[in-house]
Amino acid sequence: MRQFLKYVLATIVGLLLFSFIGFLLLIGLSAALSSSSDQKAEVKENSVLKIDLDKPIEERSSENPFNGFGPISTSGDAIGLIELKKALKEAKEDDNIKGIYLHTESPSAGWASVEEVRNALIDFKQSKKFVYAYAETMNEKGYYIASIADKIYLNPAGDLEWNGLDAELSFYKGTLDKLGIKPEIFRVGEFKSAVEPFIREDMSEPNKRQVTSFINSINDHMLVRVAQSRGLRVDSLKRYADKLTIQKPADALRTKLVTNVGYQDELESVIRKQLGVEEKKKINYVSLGKYQSSESTDSKSEGSGSNRIAVIVASGDIHTGKGEENSIGSETIVEEIRKARMDDKVKAIVLRVNSGGGSALASDVMYREVQLARKAKPVIGSMSDYAASGGYYMLMGCDKIVAQPNTITGSIGVFSLLFNTETFFKDKLGVTYDRVKSNENADFPAVTHEMTPFQKQTLQRATERIYNEFTSKAAAGRKLPVDSLRAIAGGRVWTGTQGKAIGLVDQLGGLDDAIKLAAQSAKLKEGDYRLKYQPRKKPFFEQLMSSFGGDEETKIQAQLGELAPYVKYLKKLKTMEGVQMRMPFEMTIR
């Protein structure tokens, strides 16, 4: 036994020593990369910017000192939309960059983000430099971006998906039934369908109507833009989708959706001729990550002059408290808006929102801070992929709202959601509850037993009260009669194009358009201001250190074994409790 304990102790000490040495090496590597970061990566003459968009596209990318540096590069990292657009602006004016090699098969992004990338590439082409695209397979999102290219190569054994868009929603009623969890739903609005996954196994008719409406709006916009780029007719594009005309690459070539059916090496031969490079010589490709590391402009403060425009980026579910990298915490956003409001150098604010909503309370807290900021300086709202329900609540107090045509917005409605977990705890975990109380409704609201009819009526009235506040404030912000606003509310979801037609949006465009509008509102000329992006992104190694605590889901699995899936799901449902402003979630548009 003594010998066994000695070996165990030696093993533990060895592991600790190995971890410590590894940590020191990591810090050393970090220091080396940090010291070399001041010396930007060199971009050779006659280079081609190689952009791979088959990654998640988020509003902003996290700092990564390994980005673009060979085997230690983390290729799976998300692409920051803001950073990507900035790189394309730099490349447009960079004499060393002669064109772009585009790889976009199946981008993991919302349609509004795809629109911004596509528009940035169109702007790049004004430099008269080439944009060539190559893919083995492409879905509609990938093709929508590639459709602006001068040449589109599709692999001879590849595939182009061209069959229209569909929206798929997930429903959990069967799961809740099996778990013994009973949802208690209180909502306002015929179209407030965010609760349907908990009480139905399919979409209601009102929900089908609204989803059909905005899917067709997104699809129609895409077809018009593709037709313009490729010199095709919209009715022809619709017919190709309806008849499943594109069965093989030759069909895509025949219908002029692509310019060439060929292999990657064939496209590279074309690029060599374009560059005047001999066939046996390598093309000077520079990856997006490496090119971003070469840029001379600080992405956090573009432009010149002492005047600033604060761009506050809010992305993710809305909740009370501090926000994380991919969530909107009311405390964090309020602090950022307040800092911008109190900073005399900041002449205008752009609030960039990418959210389907969340906590009603948190949304209202942020709305209040927007109202205060608006009294001090112009505040412009910019919608990304989603700015619906609580996401719209945040923006409705802005001076102007800018949205992409395919942004998902609206969903002005409210619901309250509680889960009666009595059966779950009793049947799955063997836990029962009993209680005493001083007053008749001291246990209100209840999640471990059935509520009384009076208690349910009270929650319904509270939900209706918050809906009335939501619609009243939205009507005031949009300068619409309350009755007119409520006629387009009811939880209904709209696209940016539809939202502009009914008064929910002021202007169609992207983040750059919102920034220009903010500058005009503050009477600033182009070049007379700098951009200040907020909140500050956590440095790479700060994120790394915070992850040393371990993955919470792994801990749950280790502690609870076969019961872990039930607890994980219950935890997810817990975030949905209380009064919520959310659009239909778990929805995939493809």
Automatic annotation (TrEMBL):
Residues 124-277, 374-525 form the Peptidase S49 domain. SUPFAM superfamilies: ClpP/crotonase. Its main location: membrane. Pfam families: Peptidase_S49. Keywords: Hydrolase, Membrane, Protease, Serine protease. InterPro entries: ClpP/crotonase-like_dom_sf, Pept_S49_pIV, Pept_S49_SppA, Peptidase_S49, S49_SppA_67K_type_N, S49_SppA_C. It is found in: Membrane. Gene3D superfamilies: 2-enoyl-CoA Hydratase, Chain A, domain 1, 6.20.330.10. Belongs to the peptidase S49 family. This is Signal peptide peptidase SppA.
